[in-house]
Predict the structure.
Amino acid sequence: MASMPLPQVSRRMLLIGLLAVLASPRTRAWSASGHRITGEIATALLTPAARSQLRQLVGSDELSLVANYMDEERAALALSYPGSPSWHYDDRPACAGDTPYAQYCPAGNCGTAQVSRWSAVLADRAADPAQRAFAVRLLVHVVSDLHQPLHSANNADQGGNQILVLLPGTTQPQKLHKVWDVDFVDFATRGSSEPAYAARLLAQYASDVPTWQHGSVMDWAAETYELALQVAYHPLPGFACNWSVSKPLVLPESYVAGAVAIIPRQLARAGARIAFVLNSALAGPSGVAPARSP
């Protein structure tokens, strides 16, 4: 698989970039396994035309191979693309859903804006091939990110990164965000291999894929935002707007069950929509960008 070259940087610049990433803890969404699963699903839904162009651009049409690029290279990307640590999520306030877009996506540094931006780059056959290759890697990752509920909402807690929780029967506190990224995905997959789980989701949700592939990235983020309110935030013990929690919250079994129940659908939606974005951008002689600008 061809890799995208990153710029040469000094040791001091690399340290600055790494510190910027560490100061922005919401860089990851879904576990590495979760991202590969969405990549597996998307790969199965690619058109022949898209497959051919992806082989030329990134060396493979196996999207699971590039699904974690934005996380794996996040420190270097923070140097070459300032603001990119914020491209993994939309910081829409959980208790003020009518907040103007420009306030929670300043200067376009949020997931939805970047999906729109890089869809257009990918669709432009005259664009620099390296930029188009980067667009593929970004779109595979960020479209998936926007289906993790705590990457589409925020309650003054950095998407759950400032809230410690205890899973039922455990004594080790974890960040709420990490529990959504990793633990709930692990609970949903139950040890299945990633290809097998992706194939199972494709079979289970085959009739839903055409419906899921309508709309724009803004529609999809709004859908995930509602899930964040209904499943990730409001059912938390003692939930309050713009809260500050001083001790770990004990997650009831009902909370965990509700969360794990939506994980398969969200992974399947993400995979279907990654395929839609890539198929649309790589369609025809000039391509079509599917995600309208906000």
Notes: The two ends are 33 Å apart (CA to CA). The chain has one domain: 30-281.
